[in-house]
Amino acid sequence: MNISSAQQELLDRIKDSMLDYIADEEAAYSAEEVKQCLGLLKNFLNEMEAASDREAGMKAVEKTVLALNDLNVNCDYELIETDQREDVCELIIKAGQAKGFNEEHEDITEEWREW
Q1: Cα dihedral across residues 1, 17, 74, 87: positive or negative
Q2: Residues 6+ apart with CB under 8 A from 80
Q3: pLDDT tens digits, 12-32
Q4: 27 with 107: CB under 8 angstroms?
Q5: Is 34 helix (H, G, I), strand (E, B) or coil?
Q6: Where residue 44 falls among pLDDT bands split at 50, 70, 90?
Q7: Residue 1 has pLDDT above 80, yes or no
């Protein structure tokens, strides 16, 4: 997997903010769910990198967003809050944009996103 420095920065920011919430609050999720979330995002980046066309890229987006929805539900909707949502969306949108599958300000997660 070839994660860019910008993608790694977003992944780190997502992880840190989720883990900070666990430390500061009585979160409805654990470090294990944070790890699962990051795994889903890294798998998405791999799938997007391998996608040969927009259809394949959008299937990766749908699969990832639906999996994140399920994970967030299992965490009483606390895992992906506003700050994380913006970073997760930015990561997904920019990965699609880098492949030429969407525009910079086109929210390709919105159709499936519940967080």
Answers
A1: negative
A2: 37, 68, 72, 88, 115
A3: 999 999 999 898 878 999 999
A4: no
A5: helix
A6: very high
A7: no
